[in-house]
Amino acid sequence: MNFKIMLQSIEPKPCIPINYQYPLSAALYRVIAKGDARYAAFLHETGYGKGFKFFTFSQIDCPFNINREEKYMKLQGNELSFSISFHLPLAMESFIKGLFQSERIDIADKKSRASFMVKSVERLPDPLQTRKENEIVSVILKPNSMIVAGIPAENGKYEYLSPDDQRFTESLIYNWRSKIATCYDENTAQSAILLLEILPIKLAFKPRLITIKAGTPNESQVRGWLNFELKVTAEKRFVELLLNAGAGLYNAMGCGSGEVKLLKNSINNI
Questions:
Q1: How buried is 268 (Cβ within 10 angstroms: 0-12 exposed, 13-18 middle, 19+ buried)?
Q2: Distances 60 to 75, 209, 211 between C-alpha atoms, Å
Q3: 112 with 157, same domain?
Q4: Which H or E element spans position 176?
Q5: For the chain, what is the mean pLDDT?
Q6: 51 vs 36: CA distance, rounded Å
Q7: Which of 94, 130, 171, 179 has the highest CB neighbour count under 10 A?
Q8: What is the pLDDT of residues 215-247, one digit of tens each?
């Protein structure tokens, strides 16, 4: 399920951290914990199987100016919005709406802080609603946050890959297959037909670097990419998992969120 959340600032001229992804993720966990502490603890401490959280959120949508020296964003209005996806049954819609309705969300680090109230929560249309679970579909996926792909490095971190590296799509498919194994089982994951194709939309891919836990001893940097689309072909249930849980790495930190730009005809044979 995919929701659009509209926030309204409590104070005028709010400023939020330039690396808002981690603070916003932490704020979302707090909202979930208030509504269902056991579910929140499960997401934060355990996740599904290999630590997957099975939710992700987009970049924020609002006009702003960036102060790069002080590392904050000054919003040009009192509202911002973002989309958030959960891999949950449709019957959970009221539960999710209830979690966020009229909640306060603080987006803050050591240098900047802004407090917001949730103005509205709207479930977005499901473009795959009319398709059968095992029907093979092909969609054009538009990322609305950076997509992170990487392979483990010797130092325990990741070697981040760019979309013009063949290993980029291989990494995304490996990650996707791992999520399927966690959600279903290993045999289902290994037999699943999963196709990904990079579709550049501008002259060059656009890298983006974000800092997680900025200003703390655990600070780290994550590199992802924008300015491309993905042609995704798989069974509907697996495409839905990719949309709801996110593509690639660091989904619960707001990476790998996407939306269906174009739904192609069903495919009987690949």
A1: exposed
A2: 11, 16, 16
A3: no
A4: helix 166-183
A5: 89
A6: 19
A7: 179
A8: 888 889 999 999 999 999 999 999 999 999 999
Q: What are phi and psi of 173, to 5 degrees?
A: -65, -40
What is the domain range of residue 236?
A: 136-263
Q: Identify whether the C-beta of residue 27 lies closer than 8 Å to the C-beta of residue 44.
A: no
Q: Is residue 160 part of a domain?
A: yes
Tell me the CA distances in angstroms from 135 to 2, 77, 87, 174, 178, one per residue in order. 21, 44, 19, 21, 20
Q: What is the CATH number of the domain that holds 150?
A: 3.30.70.1900
Could you tell me if residue 130 is inside a domain?
A: no
Task: For residues 54 and 11, state if they share a domain.
Answer: yes
Phi, psi of 179 (to 5 degrees): -65, -40
Angstrom distances, CA of residue 21 to CA of 168, 233, 252: 22, 29, 9
Q: Is residue 129 part of a domain?
A: no
Taking each helix axis from N to C terminus, what angle separates 166-183 and 236-245, rounded to the nearest 10 degrees? Answer: 100
Angstrom distances, CA of residue 226 to CA of 4, 199, 244, 255: 21, 11, 19, 11
* Overall domain count for the chain: 2
- 142 and 253: one domain? yes
Residue type, 131: R
Please indicate, yes or no, if residue 26 is contained in any of the structural domains: yes
The residue with tokens 């590392």 is 71
